[in-house]
Amino acid sequence: MTRLRDAALTSKAWPFEEARRLAERYETAPPAKGHVLFETGYGPSGLPHIGTFGEVARTTMIRRAFEAISDIPTRLICFSDDMDGMRKVPDNVPDPVALRDHLQKPLTSVPDPFGTHESFGHHNNAMLRRFLDTFGFQYEFISATDFYRSGRFDAVLLRAAERYDALMEVMLASLREERQQTYSVFLPIHPETGRVLYVPIRHVDAREGTVTFDDEAGREWTVPVTGGNVKLQWKPDFGARWAALDVDFEMFGKDHSTNAPIYDRICEILGGRAPDHYVYELFLDENGEKISKSKGNGLTIDEWLTYAGAESLSYFMFQKPKTAKRLWWDVIPKAVDEYHQQLRAFPEQELPAQLANPVWHIHAGQPPESGMLVSFAALLNLASVVAAPDRERLWGFIRRYAPDAAPETHPDLDAAAEGAVRYFRDFVAPTRVYRLPDARERAAMADLAARLQAWDGGLDAEALQSLVFAVGRAHGFEPLRDWFRALYEVLLGASAGPRFGGFIALYGVAETVALIDRGLAGDLAA
Predict the structure, then answer these.
(1) Residue 431 per-residue DSSP state
(2) Domain shared by 340 and 358, yes or no
(3) Measured at the alpha carbon of residue 67, what is the angle toward residues 278 and 246, in degrees to the nearest 5?
(4) Which helix (H) or strand (E) holds 492?
């Protein structure tokens, strides 16, 4: 343990860098609450999405890194903002018309259109917890509704009434003049309709702990700030929650970065200590535009998991979180193969290299062995050549290449074969474009076919790769990647592919000779 801690204290992996920064909060004394608190927030107006996964996964990585360098216990809270008013009726629910009468009510006061839970908010909270549980995240769940109504938030709400002017000074400085005229940090819940009201507050009575306001009909009301009778606007709510829970760490996307000083100041005014932050870059779609839930221009969790496992998604999330990255279909095969490359490398690495390896952070220091005897890219190209209708067709080739492999003994390879067939069907098959070789390429491919016909070296992928290299050099391809591109475009209908020697070993030497003959005859291009 001492050896691990010593290595972790100097590791340059970003979770360890953040963990060390967080540990500096308690260099002189441990936290009075007895633990370090990590938090992630969630807006339950819709289903959990890939950003939710990324935020919890990355926070968990920092939490595990912190536990490697510190003896202070940790907790992770997932906080659902389910007191928010429903601002619009979702399109993707049963009988959306029936929800129109419940606009602006807290999500936990809106009937569940699916008919399975106490409210729409409870339904979405259950979906969130099921989502987090599926991936094995260790967390505690808090509902904002319970937090407000149970009294756990009362002390901070009363303090907000006492320090109302200071809070308003911070918030008004961040608003346009028009918005300043009606803004209040408090949003009362109408005593009759139950709606969240965006109305001016006429008076805040710090002694009584009440707010007075006129509703939309001009009637005056006075309600306590405690007990769930009001909620805070979202920016003050951010900081107030940090103060109430004594949060030590929260990460959020770059779109929140300009508001972070506001959150911090609200927390401090309310008697808290602002937590450490980690601001990550946002994901981009295929055109380099920011991914938006409303636009639907990114991948969903279910879409990723249709083709690859959650570990590959965690690997993608680990890579350069402060750099904007394309999150599109074509990143999936690369993420799968790189994840397994790191798994295979891990056992042979020294401890410092292991701590820098993404799989240490994905699997809390205990990564499994990789059973991927064949790369995802090779499986994709095999599926392309044989037009595989199912993974059993691929297993016919896999068993010949690796006789001891089976779906039961290599479940990750079996899952990858299934994912490769689906990926081929959905993305590769519709885009394949074969071409005829030019004169030099034709001569080189004929030479390769002849050498393969005379080959007696078995299914040694590296030896076959060397053979392919030798043919390319013999025919003057410079750079050699032009030779491999020609093989891919003529034989596979794509501009990129796997190591070709590995592909030959998997597909078969005689089968590859026949494939080359078809390419040279123009059958594939036709």
Answers:
(1) G
(2) yes
(3) 55
(4) none
Q: What is the pLDDT of residue 428?
A: 86
- Could you tell me which of 456, 525, 469 has the C-alpha nearest to residue 499? 469
Helices and strands, counts by H and E, the chain: 23, 12
Specify the length of the chain in residues. Answer: 526
First vs last Cα of the chain: how many Å apart? 63
Strand 74-80 and strand 36-42: pairing? parallel
Q: What is the pLDDT of residue 250?
A: 97
As for how many domains the chain has, the answer is 4
Q: Is residue 269 part of a domain?
A: no
Instruction: Name residues of the chain where pLDDT drops below 70.
Output: 1, 46-47, 292-298
What token pair was written down for 21?
């920064």
**The amino acid at 383:** A
Structure tokens at 205: 């009575």
Q: What three-state secondary structure class fits 412?
A: helix
Full-model pTM: 0.90
Q: Are residues 407 and 443 in the same domain?
A: no
Taking the C-alpha atoms of residue 244 and residue 317, their distance in angstroms, rounded to an integer, is 30
Separation between Cα atoms, residue 490 and residue 465, nearest integer Å: 18
Residue 118's domain spans which residues? 2-150
C-alpha torsion sign, points 444, 448, 451, 457: positive
Is 103 within a domain?
yes
